[in-house]
């Protein structure tokens, strides 16, 4: 096994000194305070931290769904707005958000058909092939209600790949699944990502999940939301179910939990 990090010289995601507050003057709350980070092309970065520390807000700022008050974000060298217009950003939400009256294949095709004119000439992936590579080849003509939660989430991930985005932002995509199923989905995602390297920002509450998937783990602190620590994972890839049983994995688990305890304790001072 080898440790491999793929950087092809492209800038990836750059977040520079981003701040964001919500609320009116008297009750204004700073949710992100001077957050800076970068994700190289082909790098997998997870964000973990206590509830309310601004993980989802950070993800939304990077995905162009929320505008930062201060600071800047660039995706592959361009502004978030033009990256979003150019379909460079793939988003996987917490719940699969599939349309129940459309088949799985039609759900994954939907982004291609919504604005056919604007999408003309854009590089796209074949929805059937994508679904097959996520193990859903036999389910393409089924409706979402006929699929398990894990299968629905895989379809949502496949949908995020149709425009072959440069970056993928994923907001706790496996949080609604039971642990066994969740683990299967993680390994499935890793297998696909290994041969389709994107810059990934992955929000999670699970320490083992963050370690298993990531090259780096960003630990956030709350009130205001900020980066407290960055932990390099460095486990060899490809990672498999056996990776959980290694001493290196357990050491990392201890380090990440200690970092989380650190930010929780400071929050109570
Ligand atoms: N649109 C909004 N308007 C007002 N407040 C908001 C808005 N979006 C988020 N917040 C507040 O910002 C803070 C951070 O929210 P965010 O969802 O980013 O945290 P999180 O770390 O993802 O939390 P969790 O782990 O519980 O999902 C919370 O206090 C939340 O109530």
What is the correct CATH architecture of the largest domain? 3-Layer(aba) Sandwich
Shape label: globular
Cofactors, ions and other ligands in the entry: adenosine-5'-triphosphate
Secondary structure category: alpha/beta
Main sheet characteristics: 6 strands, mixed
Provide the spatial order of strands within the biggest beta sheet: 6-7-8-3-9-10
Series of secondary-structure elements, N-terminal to C-terminal: EEEHEEHEHHHHEHEHEEH
Strand content: 15-25%
| Helical percentage | 25-40%
Low-confidence stretches: 1-6
Top-tier CATH class of the largest domain: Alpha Beta
**At the third CATH level, what is the topology name of the largest domain?**
Rossmann fold
Number of helices: 9
Radius of gyration, CA atoms, in whole angstroms: 19 Å
For the residues shown, what is the average pLDDT? 90
Beginning-to-end CA distance, first to last residue: 44 Å
CATH homolog superfamily of the largest domain: P-loop containing nucleotide triphosphate hydrolases
Q: Strand tally, please?
A: 10
Count of the separate structural domains = 2
InterPro entries: AAA+_ATPase, ABC_transporter-like_ATP-bd, ABC_transporter-like_CS, ABC_transporter_ATP-bind, P-loop_NTPase
GO molecular function: ATP binding
Domain ABC transporter: 13-247
Keywords: ATP-binding, Nucleotide-binding, Transport
List the helices and strands and how they pair.
Blueprint lengths: L12 E10 L6 E11 L4 E5 L6 H9 L6 E6 L2 E2 H6 L3 E4 L11 H11 L1 H4 L7 H7 L15 H12 L6 E5 L7 H17 L3 E5 L3 H7 L2 E6 L4 E7 L14 H21 L2
Parallel strand pairs: 3-8, 3-9, 6-7, 7-8
Antiparallel strand pairs: 1-2, 1-4, 4-5, 9-10
Helix pairs in contact: 3-6, 6-7, 8-9
This protein binds adenosine-5'-triphosphate.
């Amino acid at each position: 096994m080898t440790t491999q990090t793929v950087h092809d010289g492209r800038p990836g995601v750059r977040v520079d000194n981003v701040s964001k507050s919500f609320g009116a003057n008297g009750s204004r709350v700073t949710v992100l305070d001077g957050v800076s980070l970068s994700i190289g092309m082909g790098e997998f970065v997870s964000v973990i931290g206590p509830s309310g520390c601004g993980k989802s807000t950070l993800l939304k700022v990077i995905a162009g769904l929320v505008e930062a008050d201060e600071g800047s974000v660039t995706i592959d060298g361009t502004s978030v707005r033009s990256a979003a217009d150019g379909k460079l950003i793939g988003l996987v939400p917490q719940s699969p958000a599939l349309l129940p009256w459309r088949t799985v294949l039609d759900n994954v095709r939907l982004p291609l058909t919504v604005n056919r004119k604007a999408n003309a000439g854009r590089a796209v992936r074949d929805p059937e092939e994508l679904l097959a590579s996520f193990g859903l080849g036999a389910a393409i003509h089924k409706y979402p209600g006929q699929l398990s939660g894990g299968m629905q989430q895989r379809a949502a991930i496949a949908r995020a790949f149709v425009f072959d985005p440069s970056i993928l932002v994923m907001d706790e995509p496996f949080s609604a699944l039971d642990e066994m199923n969740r683990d299967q989905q993680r390994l499935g995602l890793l297998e696909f990502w290994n041969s389709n390297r994107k810059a990934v920002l992955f929000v999670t509450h699970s320490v083992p999940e963050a370690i298993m998937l990531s090259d780096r783990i960003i630990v956030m602190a709350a009130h205001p939301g900020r980066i407290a620590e960055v932990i390099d994972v460095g486990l060899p890839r490809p990672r498999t179910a056996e990776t959980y049983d290694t001493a290196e994995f357990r050491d990392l688990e201890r380090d990440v939990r200690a970092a989380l305890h650190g930010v929780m304790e400071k929050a109570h001072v």
